[in-house]
Write a structure and sequence with these properties.
It is built from 18 helices and twelve strands. It is α/β, with parallel strands linked by helices. The strands form four sheets. It has a five-stranded parallel β-sheet with strand order 5-4-3-9-10, sandwiched between helices. A three-stranded antiparallel β-sheet has the order 6-7-8. Strand 9 (about 280-285), helix 10 (about 290-300) and strand 10 (about 310-315) form a beta-alpha-beta unit. The chain starts with a helix and ends in a 9-residue tail after the last helix. Bound molecules: arginine. Arginine (ARG) binds near residues 65, 69 and 282.
Length: about 525
């Protein structure tokens, strides 16, 4: 190995980037990056608005299908996780220059609407004719009651089916009632999106209704469709029932109705043919992995996915309570997102108030309210994004709001501290001079410099693997490396030209934190 190592070194020209490579041990080659090279790269990063992160060479049209709650039901923590992950993924892709369509595939169609409309007509008719007659919470309760009656009462079941047929036939009264219900839910969802500062274009399941018959026709034409017990199915490869028989994907039910999967097939076609998507990303809990694998398989067999199109399901794990079980309220009810977010904000406000009191710091109520709102929501986002999305994670207010560790408050404070230097020294980071020298004589300066220069690589990785936790980890390590540098070396008290050089490192750290957090959907505060 040493001979081979020597051969490699003899044939390598890295003089611009590295000191002469050293052969060590049984045959390792050690490379030491030249400080002058790091300095040149940092200069380039400084003068570049994108901090050296290149735009994608091949700009793509990308569909990100995320959030996607269901009408007349509460948006739950799974939808929250999809919303947070989806927004981050869309931001990263947008930053790389892709043309991103952020689609909210809300569950706004299906047999449940027949049941709900019928129940409301009998028990709560004003809900079907008057906007805002009930709020979403009540609607959810009524939905549960309707479901109960549906399960117990065969006459009600029959009537509900008639109701679905009316709705599908676009009976004006049914459509009006359905629209009212949708608007009600939509408004409530929007409150959450506004608070989280997440942009989405709603294109629910109902949008694809006109395209469902063609899905069936084309599958029939390609010879994939098989009738089984009166239903139109495609038999799947690699999916079997308990007896080992191939599992069918039901495309059209015996009564002529369509399924969730049929809508997804129509959506794939529409997104490829009409939206011209080259990458389609669907973000849901891992429980839907089979559903997507099945739908993608059928679409592939039917030849609907050209080679140039990449289609992926981006799964994520469960959000658990501190007891390690699916998160619930104390009375075992599903947690309301609004309450969950409010709690994070309240707790941060309390922490902040006691810190202010301890430091004898006076702040206005607006300042406190604003900081609490921003940090509380950011803490929830960051807790979600910093976990590998494939694993379940425990939703812990104490952990996510902690000022120590890989949390939003820690990262946001790191930013405030770096920026604080410019305030303290009366320094305008933007006027450090384009030609100021960057000197990297100290080990900790070089370590920080090398980390700063990895931003481009990390963002490219997130774009490819769709794992936002890599970006969180990068930013966390950046603040740690910055802290080590700052603890050991003085900045404001250093002699010139070292002082300016170190200020440049501080400025680049702040800018990198700001950009990185922005890609996570987290704003920075100048003071906290
Ligand atoms: N509405 C679904 C749910 O709440 C999620 C939809 C995800 N997107 C899709 N194209 N199927 O589980």
């Amino acid at each position: 190995p040493r001979v081979i190592a020597q051969l490699i070194v003899d044939n390598l020209d890295v003089t611009e980037v590295c000191e002469p490579p050293q052969i060590a041990g049984p045959g390792f080659i050690n490379f030491t990056v030249k400080p002058s090279y790091l300095a040149t790269q940092l200069q380039a990063m400084r003068t570049n608005e994108r901090l050296g992160v290149a735009g994608a060479e091949q700009k793509q049209r990308v569909v990100v299908d995320f959030s996607s709650p269901n009408i007349a039901k509460e948006m739950h923590v799974g939808h929250l996780r999809s919303t947070i992950l989806g927004d981050c993924i869309a931001r990263v892709l947008e930053f790389r220059g892709h043309d991103v369509l952020r689609l909210n595939h809300v569950g706004d169609w299906g047999t449940q609407f027949g049941m709900l409309i019928l129940y409301l007509r009998e028990n709560y008719p004003q809900a079907l004719t008057t906007p805002d007659a009930i709020d979403l919470g009540d609607l959810v309760v009524l939905y549960k009651k309707a479901k109960k009656q549906f399960d117990e009462d065969t006459e009600f079941q029959e009537a509900a089916r008639t109701e679905v047929v009316k709705l599908q036939a676009k009976d004006p009264e049914s459509i009006k009632a359905w629209q009212l219900l949708c608007n009600q839910s939509r408004r409530e969802f929007q409150v959450i999106y506004d608070r989280l500062n997440v942009r989405l274009t709603e294109r629910g399941e109902s949008f694809y209704n006109p395209y469902l018959p063609a899905v069936v026709d084309d599958l029939r034409e390609s010879g994939l469709l098989v009738e089984s017990n009166g239903a139109q199915c495609v038999f799947l490869d690699g999916f079997t029932n308990r007896d080992g028989d191939p599992l069918p994907l039901i495309i059209q039910k015996t009564d002529g109705g369509y399924n969730y999967a049929t809508t997804d097939l129509a959506a794939i076609r529409y997104r490829i043919q009409t939206d011209r998507a080259e990458r389609i990303i669907c973000i849901t809990d891992a429980g839907q992995a089979d559903h997507f694998a099945q739908v993608f398989q059928v679409a592939r067999q039917a030849g609907w996915i050209p080679d140039r199109v990449e289609i992926v399901h981006v799964p994520f794990g469960l959000v658990l309570g501190e007891d390690g079980k699916k998160i619930k309220t104390r009375d075992g009810e599903a947690i309301k997102l609004k309450e969950l977010l409010d709690e994070a904000i309240d707790r941060f406000r309390n922490d902040l108030e006691s810190r202010l009191a301890a430091d004898h710091r006076q702040e206005t109520p607006e300042f406190i309210a604003n900081s609490a709102e921003i940090v509380g929501l950011s803490a929830v986002k960051y807790a979600d994004l910093s976990q590998n999305r494939l694993s379940n994670y425990v939703f812990s207010y104490d952990k996510m709001l902690s000022l120590q560790g890989n949390t939003a408050p820690y990262m946001m404070y790191a930013y405030v501290r770096v920026r604080g230097i410019s305030r303290k020294g009366g320094i305008d980071f933007d006027r450090l001079g384009d030609n100021a020298q960057i000197l990297l004589d100290e080990e900790l300066e070089r370590t920080l410099a090398k980390h700063l220069l990895q931003l481009d690589t990390i963002i490219t990785e997130v774009e490819r693997d769709l794992l936002p936790n890599r970006l969180c980890q990068y930013l966390f390590e950046l603040s740690q490396k910055y802290n080590q540098f700052y603890d050991k070396h003085s900045v404001l008290d250093a002699e010139e030209p070292i002082r300016t050089s170190r200020l440049i490192l501080c400025d680049l750290t702040a800018k990198t934190l700001q950009l990185g957090l922005d890609l996570l959907g987290i704003p920075v505060l100048e003071r906290m």
